[in-house]
Amino acid sequence: TLDLTLDHKNGSPVSIIGNLKPIIGKDGKIESATSILTDVTEVRKTENEIKKLSLVASESPDGILVRDSRGITLWVNKAFELTSGYTAAEIIGKDISGLFTGPGTDLKAHKQAVKKRSKGEKSNIELLLYKRDGSSGWIRLLTYPILNGLGKVESMVTLLQDITERKKISP
Q1: Please, are residues 99 and 91 in contact by the beta-carbon 8 Å criterion?
Q2: Quick one: which of 52, 85, 53 has its CA closest to 66?
Q3: What is the CA radius of gyration of the chain?
Q4: In the chain, fewer beta carbons within 10 Å around the N or the C end?
Q5: Cross-strand partners of 2
Q6: Backbone angles phi and psi of 163, in degrees to 5
Q7: Stated pTM of the model
């Protein structure tokens, strides 16, 4: 298998994967060969875009949480771990909906946000979050449902912004 990047006659790069298959004659020797070349330029562009977005999500200063349609955690970034006090290993594969609530959490606002997400609507709420160590802080949760081709929620991406300092300043 060959994996090449060539220059198109217009000067733009073209990514090609090539497979070469020998044709063996009756005497067991190679008589000729066939080759199939496939233009994978768009695939490579998509792969590079995914790498960039992955880097941005991983290194974002805001916490990022990705869940499936049932609310099961699929992925979190480093900032989410710092904000919540939980490691990815502790929460991936789990429904963490009520994990961060405590005595000061507005449960009504939390339930309204969950209801919006289940309908495929985005939500934007500010809540008092309780971390793993019991300490609390204010966060802004921006949740964006990802819909499949049928308009059903496939997954959800939530951004967590620590707004504790802002809440201390505002009355």
Answers
A1: yes
A2: 53
A3: 25
A4: C
A5: 18
A6: -115, 20
A7: 0.71
